[in-house]
Amino acid sequence: MRKLLVISVLALLAGAAVIWLLQQGSGYVLISLGDTSIEMSALVAGAIYVLLTGFLLWSLLAVRWLTSAGGIRLWWNGRRSAKQRNKTAQGLLLYADQDWQKASLLLSQSADRSSMPVVNLLFAARAAADSNEPNKARQLLQRLKMTHPKSQLLADKLLAELLIVDEKLDEAVLLLESLHRENPSDTGILRLLVDAYFLLEDWVMAQKLLADIKHYAALNKRAIKLLELDIYTSLLAEFVADPEFTEQEQQGQLAELWEMLPQPLRKVPEVIVQYADALAAVNGTDKLQPLLTKALNNEWHPDLIDRFGGLQTSKPEKQLSIGEKWLPAHSDDAGLLLALGRICGRLGLTGKAKDYLTSAVSLEPSPQNYLELAELLGAMGENKASATVYRDGLRAGLKESE
């Protein structure tokens, strides 16, 4: 309120001063243009001059503002940017709607004037690849690398992904291995590289990559466990001992591979099954029985009991004794009955073997169970019964194939 009062008083004083100066009549200005002349006091001429000069300066500043970044140019650039953003948004919506060709075209055309040119070109390349245009996708990625050198890593990762999708796995691996050497902590590269190794079934290289995947958390814990399971079961399944080594040395090779496995994996039935098969291939049967016995005591699994029944040991009596201890808890398990029938057959206990195998067929009339029983009956001289069981097994096999 005080400020308003002071300003009002000063305005009144200024107005009074101007009126007083005008009344003094000190000098005048005469402007003559042909027949027209204009006469005014010097004070009025000065005031007009100041006003005109101020207006001219204001006009010049206004024109400069309108034509500079703060005026028309800013408005025009903003309008153009909004238009390009709208095109980018439309292109991304088309991509989300899986309209690959239109998305690629719109995103690539609007890339140069987009506020997000890298996004435009990356998604344009993806859309081109998804629309079965790999050459166009590569051209767009090359354009991205040339126009935005800092985005070269992004472009190369996407190129590697496209190569994997296009099943050019060797080319993808070469590119990804080079990128991994330069960027060892890049989780995206790690995921793509292990995918490429997986598809190539290069389990040795995939296993070597596991340490980095864990260290840099390239995958979540559940995915890492599944990946480990796939890699190590495949390594065991494809284990081939060096034929130049002795049997003991071959078993040592397998033992080294087994020791590489994380401790939790050594308790997984699927892994133990593969290890058991590998042990059998190098005649490591002495280690097999305690391994399978311990595994079955920890977790019952059909493949484990199948390997147990097929195991030929130096002490089949002990093997039979162990198997029969599981009967009270698994009396309705056809796999266990089949295993006991096989063991009894090897021991020459044909009557007992026949009982176990007959029970197995009753519980699970599978071709395998019929075959085991038919072969046993044939060995016992019961040819007619054996032929009947063979026919029943054949019928069971035909039903399964339908």
What can you tell me about this protein's structure?
Among the domains are: 95 residues; 85 residues, Alpha Horseshoe (Serine Threonine Protein Phosphatase 5, Tetratricopeptide repeat). It is mainly alpha-helical and 402 residues long. It has 20 helices and two strands. A two-stranded antiparallel ribbon has the order 1-2. The chain is rod-shaped and about 150 Å long. The mean pLDDT is 83.
Relevant terms:
402 residues; mainly alpha; two-stranded antiparallel sheet; 20 helices
Helicity, in percent?
A: over 70%
The main pleated sheet reads as: 2 strands, antiparallel
Number of separate strands: 2
Taken as a percent bin, the fraction of beta residues is: under 5%
The radius of gyration over CA amounts to 44 Å
SSE inventory with pairings:
Blueprint: H1 2-24, E1 28-33, E2 36-41, H2 42-67, H3 72-96, H4 100-109, H5 117-130, H6 134-147, H7 152-165, H8 169-182, H9 187-200, H10 203-215, H11 221-237, H12 247-260, H13 269-281, H14 285-298, H15 302-310, H16 316-325, H17 334-347, H18 350-363, H19 367-379, H20 383-401
Antiparallel strand pairs: 1-2
